[in-house]
Amino acid sequence: MTHKAVPSITAYTDGPLLVRGDVEILDAAGEPVPRGRETVALCRCGVSSIKPFCDGTHKLVNFRTDPVAPQA
Amino acid sequence: MKLYERPAAAASRTQLPFAPRGHVSQRIVTLLETDPADAAVILNDLASHVERGIAETADIVNSDDLQVAMFLLYGLHYGSLTGVSADWEWQPELVACRLLLESAFEAALRASVPVPELPAPTAEAVAAALFALTSAESGPSLARFVAKKATVAQLEEFVVQRSIYTLREADPHSWAIPRLTGRPKAALVEIQADEYGGGRPERVHAEIFAATMRGMGLNASYGAYVDHVPAITLASLNMMSMFGLNRRLRGAIVGHLAAFEMTSSIPNRHYGNGFRRVGFGEDVTWYFDEHVAADAVHEQIAGRDLAGALAEDDPTLLADIMFGANACLVVDGWAGAQMLDAFMSHTSSLRMPVVDAAVPAVPTTVQS
Description:
The complex is a heterodimer of chains A (about 70) and B (about 375).
Chain A: E1 8-11, E2 17-20, E3 40-42
Antiparallel strand pairs in A: 1-2, 2-3
Chain B: H1 8-11, H2 23-32, H3 40-44, H4 46-56, H5 64-78, H6 92-112, H7 123-135, H8 141-148, H9 152-166, H10 171-174, H11 182-195, H12 205-215, H13 231-245, H14 250-262, H15 265-277, H16 282-313, H17 318-344
């Protein structure tokens, strides 16, 4: 039996969200978005030209992820 | 430009697709074209040739002869030299020559590449320092030129120059995999697995680049354009090979990869746009477009999980991580400037024209 890893989303400081594992990404119409690779980076600054994926442009607009949300 | 003459008889024994550029590289080519069993005479005075070559050279980074010599010696490890016996790889005299050349090359790099201010040896601090270092670059001016102004002939030169590394893309950094453990090893493998196509041979990045070359009517066999490129282009790859192949420099190869990935996504968007602007289709632009998304993933992993985690695990490597990152920026900056200066002054960046390529196959319709 192979160990099935729990899918994960990792928040990178001042950068995108990296998605690993068996997750389906859907667009606004509910259609699957081809991932193209095992680990993908989702835009969270809003300026990527290849949304929902990151294209590195957050670095040009000084996107910052702090402060983080307060603990509930 | 005069090229070093290759002995006609020896040329028939191997099929090296490029020529030596001075007495050191000539000596190594002659040796590699000799049966290993008959090579004692050449091997005996090889080190003295290398030592003299180093002593004669004021600037090893831009030395045609010594950069070709190193390219040949690293080629023995990659297996990228057509027709050359695999028995040469661990030949002691050749390894000794490589160490002599590397000693001089590394000293020259350390003299001209400053080590940036060191961050705290934590994954977050190292990632932040690497992103700050790579964003402090003066900007992707070669990339902007490619996007807005480059002619088809200049785009062809750009691809010829890039082919020296990119037809072996990712290989120099893969040497580091068994030299790492734990988190940095997993991070490097995660990046390299994507570089090598995630199990799909047609998606290996070097293969996608070969398709770009063929789509432009260029020769995608390895080494076809070594004669065309200046020493600095070979130095860029030789530096990666040196960092990757020497375990003591594993910090430098990790830092190099981080800086390389962090300066890739945005320039590749410009490159893709430039090739589209003159009418090339997806067969040619796929490589660049693929790297926009891929390297936006890789740069995050390389900064925090690879370089950052390595610095956490072994803080003694921090200085070399930052040195390797800056060496990537400085040396590739020199190589990029060599190209951009030539393009801006309407001259060629190559040592000789690309004559064997077909007329670039610019499609008449732009793909939607």
